[in-house]
Amino acid sequence: MSSTVQIRVPATSANLGPGYDALGLALSLYDEVEVTLTAEPEVTVTVEGEGAGEVDLGEGHLVVRAMRTAFARMGGAQPAGIRMRCRNAIPHARGLGSSSAAVCAGILAARALSGAAEFSDDDVFALATEMEGHPDNVAPCLAGGLTVAWYEHTGVPRMVKVTPDERIRPVVVVPSTRLSTEAARELLPKDVPHKDASFNAGRAALLIAALTRRPEREILLAATEDRLHQSYRAPAMPESAHLVERLRAVGVPAVVSGAGPAVLAFSASDSQDLIAPEVGNDWHIQQMDVDPVGANVQFPETR
Ligand SMILES: Nc1ncnc2c1ncn2[C@@H]1O[C@H](COP(=O)(O)OP(=O)(O)O)[C@@H](O)[C@H]1O
Ligand SMILES: N[C@@H](CCOP(=O)(O)O)C(=O)O
Q1: Measuring CA to CA, how many Å separate 181 from each of 16, 71, 187, 294?
Q2: Which end of the chain has the lower number of beta carbons within 10 A, N or C?
Q3: pLDDT at position 303 over 50
Q4: CATH code assigned at 114
Q5: Is the domain of 12 the same as that of 153?
Q6: What is the pTM of this model?
Q7: In this structure, are 91 and 133 located in the same domain?
């Protein structure tokens, strides 16, 4: 069995407006991790790109922690040492699923390197969700495309993947400011009015129809309305809230990406030119594709 594996994991945008904690989209923006198990009992991590100079470079690194958790869960021995190289393009704490990507990468690396065939894809999904907390990020990261995630009454997470219409072009607008997902979740009320829950249920159902069959701008605009999370979180990211408002006012279906503060817009060819004039200099606009396949695992010699 090889002692080195390469993992590529996509960024994800969760919620998509009305699908709070349920809907997610995989994006063509990736973190790449190469992991080698070593005999020397030390953990060494190098990071290029996002997170460089910020994240822990030893046992505290999120990918390493996910690997350790997965090895323990699979029942095998922990590796003596781990050497890891990360090349990250997913910005941290912006609402683009960086922590989900890191956790998925670690679990997939541990499974690949241990050769534990009995640890199924469902087991990977369940463990990543348990560690990260958000199946709406984990599902598209693992499976690609557009996913609907939910929990069984037993607490087991499940997902269904659907393929978005090829005309759907995500545009992500990323600010330099950060907001941790944990902090953004603390802003949400315990209860919401029944009429708001019913409003979101209808919009979330419409959004699946819009993204897969009817990606017209006016349908996407209605389908991306939300009353369950964005307004409650707006005080923590007023500039994101204003940008979403301005984009929607000129006809671009825009939402807060995940827990923010990045903004996700669905751009048809006729709306791309509408986005740039609304965005200030301190934001970075990235036109993307939907990633169709999700996390990728390769052994170097087969690449
Ligand atoms: N590739 C990574 N390597 C190490 N730590 C990471 C990585 N990605 C995310 N993290 C950790 O997760 C935090 C961001 O998680 P979170 O607040 O959930 O935001 P996000 O929306 O980006 O997932 C980072 O500040 C960092 O501590
Ligand atoms: N449903 C979660 C999604 C968090 O996504 P992230 O990319 O910000 O981690 C939420 O809205 O809290």
Answers
A1: 15, 26, 10, 22
A2: C
A3: no
A4: 3.30.230.10
A5: yes
A6: 0.96
A7: yes
